[in-house]
Amino acid sequence: MKHLLSHIWPITKRIESEYSGVMEVVSSNGKKYLNSKNANYSYGSLQRIMEKGILEVDLTKVDSVLLLGMGGGSAIFSLRNKFKYERKITAVEWDKKIIEIARDEFLISKFDNLTIENEDAFAFVNRIKEQYDLVIIDLFIDIEVPKQFYSFEFIEHIDRIMSPASSLIFNLGIGEQSREKRDAVIKWFRSKEKYGIQVFEKVQGYNTLLIVHKNVN
Question: How far is 211 from 201, CA to CA, in rounded Å?
Fold first, then answer.
């Protein structure tokens, strides 16, 4: 019944998170979206941004994906359903409430070969030894990327966990206030001969998307 009603008018369920504030699960036209106070968090424009990045990666050469910032799990849905990627995905999400929303509202647990880690992304990349063929970074609190994820220390950890011939998709955020930090991240990767980069500005009107390929000839 709720699915049918959503075709007539949007149905909104508000869920409060200690870390992310009030989140809204919106059912509209038979689809569900997860929104923060000022932005789409999953399954709307954010999903289309990630799909643009995934299109730049040859998934046939990817045996493992690390997703930093799971949100409602829209990137996982895209990988599994749209791109038919069936291999290992590790998703890191620090907000337990967001994990609950992903499981209860978006049924993310139905996917096989998926591991969800409830941990801060910075701490996670600092401690792990494993390398990944594709790293996706989508770390926001509302519309802001926390400053530690622009730091060279964080980037160096990402560099360490990227396997040979791997790729990186980094949603660098929006707004002029973070422009200098975004440019510093881009410059860091551009300065390394082992990386080839693509930068897409104003994806879906706002976001800067950085695509990095390791060992590109």
Answer: 11
List the one residue out of 102, 130, 127, 131 whose CA is nearest residue 116.
102
pLDDT-based confidence at residue 6 (cuts at 50, 70, 90): very low
What amino acid occupies position 158? I
Question: Which CATH number does the domain housing residue 74 bear?
Answer: 3.40.50.150
- Residue 72 contacts residue 58 (beta carbons within 8 Å): no
Output the pTM of the full model: 0.89
Contact present, 75 and 136 (Cβ < 8 Å): yes
H helix or E strand, kind and range, residue 196: strand 195-203
How many domains is the chain built from? 1
Domain annotation covers residue 65: yes
Range of the domain at 94: 40-214
Interstrand relation of 11-17 and 21-28 (parallel, antiparallel or unpaired): antiparallel
Distances in whole angstroms, Cα of residue 27 to Cα of each of 21, 41, 174, 196: 19, 14, 26, 40
Question: Model confidence over 19-49: pLDDT tens digits?
Answer: 778 888 888 777 887 877 777 767 777 788 8
What does the radius of gyration of the chain's CA atoms come to, in whole angstroms?
17
Strands 132-137 and 11-17: unpaired
CB 72 within 8 A of CB 35: no
